[in-house]
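Hello K.,

You asked for the raw outputs rather than the summary table, so here they are, unedited. I folded two proteins back to back in the same session to keep the settings identical. This is the first:
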Amino acid sequence: MTAFRAFSLLFVIALGNSAFAGDIERACLGSDRSAANRPLCGCIQDAADLTLSTSDQRRAAAFFRDPHRAQEVRQSDRRADEVFWDRYKQFGEAAETFCRR
């Protein structure tokens, strides 16, 4: 991750965007994961905003409801799924880096 992207993510986190919950944040908050809370899910949404398009975010949010779908996409031979999965991995790495407690 470039220094610019890291700075951008920190800037977005510092501003806070809780009034406008995105697809990822809503899916995270609605999940049955015990660690899901507004600060963590908001941070994950901020990472998504920097790394995923709006349509990618919708697609990724569906993984919270159906984790098996993520596995299907990851194992898919379709080029579009492979390209999406690369972006999704980048999102996951950004979220892990900046939202770790």
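The second followed immediately with the same parameters:
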Amino acid sequence: MCLGIPGELIEFVPDHPDLAKVDVSGVKRVINVGLLADDMPKPGEWVLIHVGFALSKIDEAEAAAALEFLEGIGQAYDDELAALQESRIE
């Protein structure tokens, strides 16, 4: 099962405008934000992430509701976080 998970944008990767570091439930990873070029998120904003790509911007309330739901489904969310933790985009 693949999930879209919310992450908070922390910062952009210097010299790589399409890459940004996000925090997903304490896991910090670099993701591609290039799909959001028309409405680029800013540090502190939330994005919905799937397979290393930010698909859309979401507000903090949507992020909190999604995280609450995902944490409630248990193993699938734990598996997704483990996959994210092992992933690398450079």
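The CA atoms of residues 33 and 40 lie 7 Å apart.

Happy to rerun anything if the numbers look odd on your end.

Regards,
P.
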